[in-house]
Amino acid sequence: MKALPVLLALAVAGCGAAPSTPEPATAVRLTATLTTPIDIRLEWTGEEAGATGQIVEFATAPEGPWTILQFMPPEQRAYEHPDLMPQTPFHYRVRPLHGPASSEVDVRFTGVPYPEPANVDVAWADPRRLPGARAGGHPLRGGGAAAAPTDLKATVMTRDAVLFTWADNASDEAGYLVEVRPDGAAAWTVAMMVDPDVTSVGLTALPEERRASFRVRAYYHGASSNVAHRTTGLSR
């Protein structure tokens, strides 16, 4: 599954003859290194207490828009961004993610010939808030476990697609992450990201996800790292 791009603006202080404004203190310090003229390696130190994950984002302008490169576990400290466009500025940042997850549900696809998506109406898969869904009333910030999604249900709809529904209990989420752990895997990974207030979405499983556990996490962003910048070479 492909994560949807996240478009966010980053305000940058202007530079002139006067000294530039110092960057705010952050727990995560990021560096970017050109390992070849068109390959960039990111490395960072530090972590934000309580983070359940992190994302690496890039932009080709200091003010964005920003695009997610990868969702990562909180212990990861490096990322390779290869085969980039020559003579192009790249700006990077790392942002911690916080928030509680629902209980997990198991999904098992079988050989039963469910209708293929091309043969049926697949509007059920669109991210949406179910009619009558109650508004979440618990803040995520401050460690409120009561804000975790509840009542997660998985319904197999086609030969390789599943519908997830849940109850929204958070009042301040940036969105929801659908996480997956295939049978035999040790770690959870992000399969999909949806907007805040969504309580229903469909997902097409990869081959290794036909027998897997899923859960949904309400999340918010922690403090961003500093922004690291490099410009690629060649093509002159």
Automatic annotation (TrEMBL):
Domain Fibronectin type-III: 148-235
PANTHER family in the record: FIBRONECTIN TYPE-III DOMAIN-CONTAINING PROTEIN, TENASCIN
SMART domains xref list: FN3
Gene3D superfamilies given in the database record: Immunoglobulins
Biological classification of the source: Bacteria, Bacillati, Actinomycetota, Actinomycetes, Micromonosporales
CDD domains, per the entry: FN3 (cd00063)
The protein, known as: Fibronectin type-III domain-containing protein
Taxonomic source organism: Phytohabitans houttuyneae
InterPro entries in alphabetical order: ECM_Regulatory_Proteins (IPR050991), FN3_dom (IPR003961), FN3_sf (IPR036116), Ig-like_fold (IPR013783)
Signal peptide: 1-17
PROSITE patterns: FN3 (PS50853), PROKAR_LIPOPROTEIN (PS51257)
Molecular function terms from GO: hydrolase activity, acting on glycosyl bonds
GO annotation (BP), single: polysaccharide catabolic process
Keyword entries, A-Z: Carbohydrate metabolism, Glycosidase, Hydrolase, Polysaccharide degradation, Repeat, Signal
